[in-house]
């Protein structure tokens, strides 16, 4: 079970084998740690020393986020005892043929999922302007096999991402100011939600990597760098479109999120909002049942994956420094988290697992499949395909 603590000004204390979330002398929640897989703390929430020691001893992955969803850090449990697996991961960093082969598989699936989302947008919105975007992603897909280096592959990814988000904005029923993917700071409501969902998704992939006993630092597609955990960035790709992008479209198009659910704030200034949000259960059911985000059975022989986030280059990022940020109000923030967790709990037929599993279980299944590739049990990694 994954638990989010979003009560601002709360304190998490240890009481016996449980953790209590308290504020102003009242207990808001009781956390049964034997059920906890991950604890996500958002904003101004305090941990007592005994609670901190308890989380470490119980090896509960604990993630700290700013209230706007920005990642701050985490408490990590002890490293995997399988030193031979970790050694193999690091040795493969220097195996260019391996890195290139697996990266092609990741990007091939990613581009296929981009195309699927764009095709749904074109079909449901009857918008022919999406077709050039689809063709540009197809062009990048067709060139993958000829790419001779990771840098070339990343160039195709950037081109495909630019086209994808140009088509993605055409899937929005209302104008929320979204024109392209902007990461820091999010300058419109759509980018704000995308950034939050991507952060949550990467955290879940990280947890799946730890469950599978892999080291999060050595990846294949994203370049290794000091302090960079590259593997979650690699393995999250197949899930961005499936979970984050389709959910974002549903939240906005079904009016579950509206202009009043966001606040415009100055850079580095935390604002408090009293705006109300319509968070009825009926709205959430409609979002999760939106056909745009549904997944059906797919051919077990197919290869799969998802869209990359296009970010501003360093010059553009510097230029946004004086711009106002857009962030979710506290109630809307909790609503998005609830929708995300319920989306993860949605079941579908997984062709490789040959049974129905939830998206949360699929995260672990895919990471374990990658481990089999690292150990040489299988040659090809098959990302998850949205159809």
Question: How would you characterize this protein structure?
Answer:
The chain is of the alpha/beta class and 387 residues long. The chain folds into two domains: 2-75, Ribosomal Protein L15, Chain: K, domain 2; 83-374, Four Helix Bundle (Hemerythrin (Met), subunit A). It has helices spanning 49-57, 83-92, 96-125, 131-142, 150-168, 189-211, 230-235, 237-253, 281-288, 314-319, 330-345, 359-374; strands spanning 2-5, 10-15, 18-23, 26-32, 38-42, 45-47, 61-65, 71-75, 262-265, 325-328, 347-350, 355-358. The strands form four sheets. A four-stranded mixed β-sheet has the order 1-5-7-8, covered by helices on one side. A four-stranded mixed β-sheet has the order 4-3-2-6. It has a two-stranded antiparallel ribbon with strand order 9-10. Strand 7 (61-65) and strand 8 form a beta hairpin. The radius of gyration is 21 Å and the shape is globular. Residues 270-279 and 296-320 have low confidence and may be disordered.
